[in-house]
Amino acid sequence: MGQGLWRVARNQQLQHQGYSGQGYLTRDPGRRLATNSISNTNHRKQAQGGIDIYHLLKTRKCKEQEGFINLEMLPPELSFTILSYLNATDLCLASCVWQDLANDELLWQGLCKSTWGHCSIYNKNPPLGFSFRRLYMQLDEGSLTFNANPDEGVNYFMSKGILDDSPKEIAKFIFCTRTLNWKKLRIYLDERRDVLDDLVTLHNFRNQFLPNALREFFKHIHAPEERGEYLETLITKFSHRFCACNPDLMRELGLSPDAVYVLCYSLILLSIDLTSPHVKNKMSKREFIRNTRRAAQNISEDFVGHLYDNIYLIGHVAA
Where is the SEC7 domain (predicted)? Predict the structure, then answer.
């Protein structure tokens, strides 16, 4: 109310001084032009005191008309930082404009190691004429070959000197690579149990809750779609590895690899029961505790209850 009365009084005062609602009265054109000129001058002075907005917008418009900034005019560190955000395809396109910058070995080395974290060739003295850009193309070609035929893909990597003919080196390559088809990888690991053994030992499950560790395990080594000998082998290897990573916890809980094996199978069955739309009557927490302790009597009821809560809240362990 007070502010409204103040505005009315102020408007009346301005009208007496010669101003209208538009800013100036039209009865004195000369005075209006002079006042406009003074106002524009004041605006310019205010802008010059801080940032000249008009000049800034004009410069920006000129930059937009000129196109993208030339990376060769920037400091090399800044140019490489900008180009490091590009993938291989975009980096190849950038090399058509900035050949020296986009073909830099450090950029292609970063692309190789971010996609294929481990290769035997990384730890060797590079041969004469070695190029990380050429290595990227070979790694990409080998991955596509692996996804069509795993044995041919591994042989391709070995023929190019990218991988050594060693189960441990192959396991490290698989563990640090995310571009391999998981279905083909599952077939390959089922046939190469020596590689599977080394791949399991690369996992570190120390201080991890059992369902979370099982999820991480199946993220790298995908579980088969049906029960069988291969699934039993995976759970057995996981159980021994989990116990080896958590010896103090195993002693505290009184668990053995066989008990962990039973728990893993119970978790897989519970995951299917709780997540499958075909199961109408879901297993309750009390039923899960009773069934699990019937198979492994030394396990505490609270621990089994926490296992159920984890699956109920987070979801399938082998999804």
Answer: 138-314
Angle between helices 182-191 and 193-201 (to 10 degrees): 110
User: Which are the catalytic amino acids?
Assistant: 226
Residue with tokens 């879901």: 282
Q: What is the pTM of this model?
A: 0.72
Distance CA 269, CA 285 (A): 13
Which residues have C-beta within 8 Å of that of residue 181, sequence separation ≥ 6? Answer: 146, 147
Q: Are 223 and 318 in contact (CB under 8 A)?
A: yes
Q: Which domains does the chain have, with CATH numbers?
A: 203-318 (1.10.1000.11)
- Cβ contact 177:202 at 8 Å: no
Question: Helix (H, G, I), strand (E, B), or coil: what is residue 71?
Answer: helix
Q: Using H for helix, E for strand and C for coil, what is the string for 242-306?
A: HHHHCHHHHHHHCCCHHHHHHHHHHHHHHHHHHHCCCCCCCCCHHHHHHHHHHHCCCCCHHHHHH
